[in-house]
What we know:
Blueprint: E1 27-28, H1 40-50, H2 62-72, E2 79-82, H3 84-96, E3 103-106, H4 112-119, E4 124-127, E5 146-150, H5 162-171, E6 177-180, E7 201-206, E8 219-223, H6 225-235, H7 245-255, H8 258-281, E9 285-286, E10 293-297, H9 303-312, E11 315-316, E12 328-332, H10 336-354
Parallel strand pairs: 1-11, 3-4, 3-5, 5-6, 6-7
Antiparallel strand pairs: 2-8, 7-8, 9-10, 10-12
Helix pairs in contact: 1-7, 2-7, 3-4, 3-6, 8-10
Bound molecules: 4'-deoxy-4'-aminopyridoxal-5'-phosphate (PMP).
Amino acid sequence: MSKFFSAKYAKLVPYVPGEQPKDAQYVKLNTNESPFSPPNSVLEAVKTEGGRLQLYSDPESALLTQKTAEVLGVQPSQVLMTNGSDEALNFAFMAFCDENHPIVFPDISYGFYSVFAKLNGIPYKTIPLKDDFSVDYRDYLGVKANVVIANPNAPTGLAISRSEVEEILKSNPENVVIIDEAYVDFGGESCVALIDKYENLLVTQTFSKSRSLAGARLGMAIGNEKLIADLNTIKYSTNPYNVNRMTAAAGFSVLCETEWFETCVRTIKENRESTKTRLQELGFTVLDSKTNFLFAKSDKVSGETLYKELKARGVLVRHFSGERIKDYVRITIGTAEQMQIFLTKTEEILKEKKV
Ligand code: PMP
């Protein structure tokens, strides 16, 4: 730390992203990306837009916002496009939370929530998941604080129902409830349709998972016009051109690829279920995932050993050292071929451990 670093950030522990190896030597199942490249139409759109990079991007991302709103069935004024959904979440923490408006979230969830809270000097409290790792919506009723819940949750993959979210919204009318739907396309129940009914609902979604654009950095916040106007105040006070030209073009074109999108999502779900079955046959406990990853624990090897042994064999998965989840690994769902390699290597490791 330099002597110039602000004291207010001195204790900040930054978010640690999953490993991003520089070479392609790994079967990469560690950061919940899509295994599928974007379709050609997206590559063409990016190329065309590349020829206009001397110009700033449209600060309103108007065409993209309109298309996104159309796909989601909401009004453009109810959508804000952001640099990944991480930015939407940070804007929401900045806009709606402060010393007098704390935030609560599950103790096992997306690691960035506590970082955003600390970064912005926001008091926060975590609420333990149940023993089966589920979120119990009753723990969030009348909490008198803002709420953020990843639904489906990460790294567990479990989801709560829309009607459970409604109970949380109804019981906290003076607080904003942020529902982080990064993984919703793989089996969760979206709350986007509730934004007209609840003025305190903000939903965030991303193009990073089901739409194969993790590297483009594109996400969005969806909520009533006033919430979105507040987020815009933060955006125009930090980074008006937050979505670059090539990303906006990629996002617009990928939203036109409905059939491609449906095929990708269906394939991931199929690969998820077949991998889950095989892991259970191998003695794993596997949570009921509604996402593009599985959270699984072996009855033979520890989470850390499995992670290390898989890495040594060229397969990257994610391991977290938190006490309650240290026995588990999180496995992103890839192509059928990638899952076959993962399973073969896992079987090898289990056999060795038996001897
Ligand atoms: N929320 C959750 C629960 C996530 O797992 C992620 C991805 N790491 C994000 C939000 C942020 O994704 P992105 O910024 O790529 O949209």
